[in-house]
Design brief:
- The protein is mainly α.
- It has helices spanning 11-19, 22-34, 39-46, 51-63, 85-122, and strands at residues 37-38, 67-72, 78-83.
- Helix 2 crosses helix 5 (85-122).
Length: 123
Amino acid sequence: MKEFHHHKFCPIRDILSRIGSKWSMLVLITLDANGTMRFNEIQKSIGDISQRMLTLTVRTLEADGLIKRDVYPEVPPRVEYTLTDRGRSLMPLLKELVRWALDNQEQILEERANLDAQEEVKG
């Protein structure tokens, strides 16, 4: 039996929990689709992300080397975000996951509804 519990550091949990959050994935996909973007453009593109959550998300992605933040000394300062080489190398995997989700969404939603209905009858 393969075990996935490590006493100090589990790279699977650490990395996947960071890139696997819905906001991280949406920011990465948005930057991949649109190229270099400013903070407000990312927020408008995603729509329902708060300013605080977007700030935390871009900081995390920057810390992991998946996006690059460029600050231009203008008044007001202009800040742009873009994917790094590492971030671009992740995109084929994320795109495949998105494709899989779209291909299976209808069936998954049906199965969830069926399970909910079964539990209502039991409960």
